[in-house]
Write a structure and sequence with these properties.
Helices cover 58% and strands 0% of the residues. The chain has 4 helices and no strands. Helix 1 crosses helix 2 and helix 2 runs antiparallel to helix 4.
Length: 84
């Protein structure tokens, strides 16, 4: 549970906790101690029910490729922001 903007508490459901748990090894493997959106995007691949895999494949896009590219973009933006 967390408070955002001093409003009502926001409760994370079990799937969100699972997503965070899947992201931790990715953060460690990257040699980092900071979890970014790129780690969450890659962690989504652990549960194919969370991503629209069928729709992506219908567009001739492989989910792992799409999420890998998005994670790379997010990582570069995070790094660029950190260097400012």
């Amino acid at each position: 549970m967390t408070d955002i903007d001093d409003g009502e508490p926001i409760v994370l459901d079990h799937r969100m906790w699972q997503l965070l748990e899947h992201a931790v090894p990715l953060v460690r493997a990257a040699g980092s101690t900071q979890m970014g959106i790129q780690h969450l995007l890659l962690a989504l691949l652990h549960d194919p029910n969370l991503i629209p895999a069928a729709e992506l494949r219908a567009m001739r896009l492989h989910p792992a490729t799409v999420f890998g590219c998005l994670a790379g973009i997010a990582a570069r933006r995070t790094e660029a922001t950190r260097n400012c």
